[in-house]
């Protein structure tokens, strides 16, 4: 499985089950053949790459393979035997596969006669690390040894064991084969349970309860029947991606996505926690604590920075530092989590880390007014999206400081005002069509006139006290023009927001930063457009994303192709997209809760609603939310009128 540098194996057709640190990647037919990424993984190591079933000397005929939850998949097949009296197979095979390393294989007979069938399962593995598998460097299968009721492989201090119940009647280590002779009475069944384990447990004993509600507790229902499955799958996927901080195992935060990014990704973890605030503040709290422990304490220029890798930004922009994005998101997530009900003692614990983030931002802004890049070859390069993150951090950070009795609020409000004024003048290009924002400015001050999905962040202002929204970087006229641009066919593919306008040179519908639909930006655009009053554009984007979600089984991938929608088309998957991905799963939550426009202010004991008046999905009811630590249920009518059905008794409800 070789490939060019940077090439990843295609996984768009794979059935992926995840409950980190456990992962199972399967083809649709269910037979694990060892090709590509197939196999059971734990802690990033492939414990089993081959699991091939034969019944009566034949491979079962696959009829269906699908995911039934975030961590489980079901594969159904039939077997033709010599005893069949006609064209209809009389034996079915069901395989239930779990991400934590379990597989249950059940054979069921519909025959009127007893059947005696030989069954064998061929097993194998290379014990390769996930990164090596993805790069095509997995190596050959290892020799197996018979162990107890199964097989064992050992290499480099790592051991993998597959045990079977009931025990096989025969085991052949040289071929890695386990054999049974099954006696199936008329209408009877026979089940084999496989358990794949390593010395390192997949789920440590006494693990912390999930900081998110169960998919059964967070519910959506309404005129549009897709809202329930979307919320259910989004919550299920996000819970499955939670991993522990090794420094404090009680803190769980979201990994970026599988199969490529199963580890820490600070910016993605904060975005996922922020979008999941309507469900719980506990994920935000744990994520913030985890990242606070990573803050740099070096030079004045580095003090407070949350380190993070660089991320490709497409063909026209240099890679961007995700650590900068995370540092700017930290005070925003803390401020908004406090609005949703994060307890004040936890706010006080995290406030010094937020102040260090603001300290870093002040040093990075200097006297220039814009937050510029500092890396080799890009010093002085200024991105519009980064200014949006910096402005949001300044405004929400100022209110956080003021309400918590800390100094510096007025200075941050002044910085934010100055940044707004300069941005509106220097990051906007006027033309006969009404103008457009620029994506960036070079170190020499030349504009980079690209229109892409990153412009959606200019509409994401943030939540202040009293149900108010923070001021935006753009003025009213510029905001209206941006809404028009985002709703145009060049940006709205019909399935969601393109990463780059179809009119831009270099547009590529499969370019992950050059034209593909990235769910994160689409969700930000829907919420930002709705909050700014541009409900027509927000509704069109929302319906397109929901249509795409339905086509993907309600599991939103990280991205998919930005191909233009037509009457007879379907959304086209991206072969390298993470699925599930934390921000994509959280975006499903964000898209639905944005319809209700919930604006809590737990410190003030109030909550307001600003629902989307056009009700683009008809009536909708959201239950299992959480405001101020208490259950919260809201209903939006077909007329766009909001009603709170359940809330903390002491909360004052506003319109």
Can you characterise this structure?
It is a single chain. The protein has two domains: 15-198, Glycoside hydrolase, family 65, N-terminal domain (Beta-galactosidase, Chain A, domain 5); 219-646, Glycosyltransferase (Alpha/alpha barrel), CATH 1.50.10. 27% of the residues lie in helices and 26% in strands. It is built from twelve helices and 35 strands. Helix 4 (282-292) packs across helix 6, helix 5 (322-340) runs parallel beside helix 7 and helix 7 (384-403) packs antiparallel against helix 8 (409-426).
Task: Provide a short characterization of the protein structure.
The protein has 655 residues and is of the alpha+beta class. The protein has two domains: 184 residues, Distorted Sandwich (Beta-galactosidase, Chain A, domain 5), CATH 2.70.98.40; 428 residues, Glycosyltransferase (Alpha/alpha barrel), CATH 1.50.10.10.
Secondary-structure blueprint:
Elements: E1 15-19, E2 22-26, E3 32-33, E4 39-42, E5 45-48, E6 50-55, E7 61-69, E8 72-79, E9 91-98, E10 102-109, E11 115-124, H1 130-134, E12 145-147, E13 150-155, E14 158-165, E15 170-172, E16 177-184, E17 189-198, E18 219-222, H2 227-240, E19 242-245, E20 248-254, H3 266-275, H4 282-292, E21 310-311, E22 320-321, H5 322-340, H6 344-365, E23 382-383, H7 384-403, H8 409-426, E24 428-429, E25 436-437, E26 440-441, E27 447-448, H9 476-486, E28 517-518, H10 519-531, H11 535-551, E29 559-560, H12 582-596, E30 598-601, E31 606-609, E32 620-627, E33 630-636, E34 642-646, E35 652-654
Parallel strand pairs: 31-35
Antiparallel strand pairs: 1-2, 2-4, 3-6, 4-5, 6-11, 7-8, 8-9, 9-10, 10-17, 11-16, 12-13, 13-14, 14-17, 15-16, 18-32, 19-20, 21-22, 23-26, 24-25, 26-27, 28-29, 30-31, 32-33, 33-34
Helix pairs in contact: 2-12, 3-4, 3-5, 3-12, 4-6, 5-6, 5-7, 6-7, 7-8, 10-11, 10-12
């Amino acid at each position: 499985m070789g490939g060019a540098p940077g090439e990843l194996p295609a996984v768009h057709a794979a059935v992926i089950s995840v409950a980190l640190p456990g992962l199972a990647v399967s083809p649709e037919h269910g037979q694990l053949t060892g090709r590509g990424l197939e196999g059971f993984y734990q802690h990033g190591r492939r414990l089993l790459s081959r699991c091939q079933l034969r019944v009566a000397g034949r491979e079962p005929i696959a009829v269906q393979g699908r995911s039934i939850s975030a961590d489980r998949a079901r594969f159904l097949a039939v077997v033709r035997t010599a005893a069949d009296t006609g064209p209809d197979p009389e034996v079915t095979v069901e395989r239930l596969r779990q991400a934590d390393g379990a597989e249950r294989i059940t054979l069921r007979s519909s025959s009127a006669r007893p059947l005696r069938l030989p069954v064998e399962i061929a097993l194998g593995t290379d014990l390769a690390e996930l990164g090596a598998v993805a790069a095509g460097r997995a190596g050959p299968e290892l020799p197996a040894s018979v162990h107890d009721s199964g097989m064992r492989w050992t290499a480099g201090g790592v051991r993998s064991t597959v045990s079977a119940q009931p025990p096989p009647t025969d085991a052949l280590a040289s071929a890695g084969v386990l054999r049974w002779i099954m006696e199936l009475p008329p209408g009877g069944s026979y089940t084999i349970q496989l358990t794949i384990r390593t010395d390192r447990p997949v789920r440590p004993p006494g693990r912390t309860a999930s900081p998110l509600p169960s998919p059964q507790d967070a519910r959506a229902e309404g005129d549009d029947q897709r809202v329930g499955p979307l919320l259910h799958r989004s919550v299920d996927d996000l819970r499955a991606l939670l991993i522990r901080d090794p420094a404090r195992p009680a803190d769980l935060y979201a990994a970026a996505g599988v199969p490529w990014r199963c580890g820490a990704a600070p910016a993605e973890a904060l975005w996922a926690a922020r979008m999941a605030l309507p469900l719980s503040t506990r994920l935000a709290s744990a994520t913030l604590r985890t990242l606070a422990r990573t803050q740099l304490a070096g030079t004045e220029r580095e003090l407070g920075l949350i380190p993070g890798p660089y991320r490709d930004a497409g063909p026209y922009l240099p890679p961007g530092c995700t650590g900068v994005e995370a540092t700017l998101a930290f005070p925003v997530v803390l401020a908004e989590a406090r609005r949703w009900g994060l307890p004040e003692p936890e706010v006080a614990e995290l406030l010094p880390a937020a102040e260090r983030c603001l300290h870093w931002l002040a040093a990075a802004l200097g006297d220039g007014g814009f937050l510029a890049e500092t890396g080799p070859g890009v010093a002085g390069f200024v991105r519009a999206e980064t200014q949006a993150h910096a402005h949001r951090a300044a405004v929400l950070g100022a209110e956080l400081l003021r309400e918590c009795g800390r100094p510096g609020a007025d200075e941050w409000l002044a910085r934010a005002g100055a940044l707004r004024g300069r941005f509106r003048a220097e990051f906007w290009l006027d033309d006969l069509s009404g103008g457009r924002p620029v994506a960036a400015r070079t170190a020499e001050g030349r504009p980079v006139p690209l229109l892409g999905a990153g412009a959606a962040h200019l509409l994401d202002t943030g939540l202040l006290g009293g149900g108010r929204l923070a001021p935006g970087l753009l003025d009213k006229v510029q905001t209206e023009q941006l809404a028009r641009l985002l709703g145009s066919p060049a940006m709205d593919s019909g399935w969601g927001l393109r990463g780059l306008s179809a009119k831009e040179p270099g547009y590529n519908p499969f370019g992950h930063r050059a034209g593909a639909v990235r769910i994160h930006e689409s969700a930000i655009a829907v919420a930002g457009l709705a909050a700014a009053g541009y409900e027509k554009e927000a509704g069109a984007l929302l319906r397109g994303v929901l249509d795409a979600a339905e086509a993907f089984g309600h599991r939103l991938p990280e991205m998919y192709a930005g191909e233009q929608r037509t009457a007879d088309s379907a959304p086209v998957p991206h072969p390298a997209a993470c699925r599930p991905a934390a921000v994509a799963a959280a975006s499903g939550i964000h898209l639905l809760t944005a319809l209700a426009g919930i604006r809590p202010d737990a410190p003030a004991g109030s909550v307001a609603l600003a629902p989307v008046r056009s009700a683009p999905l008809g009536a909708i009811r959201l239950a299992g939310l959480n405001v101020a630590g208490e259950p919260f249920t809201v209903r939006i009518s077909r007329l766009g009128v909001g009603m709170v059905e359940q809330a903390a008794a002491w909360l004052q409800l506003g319109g």
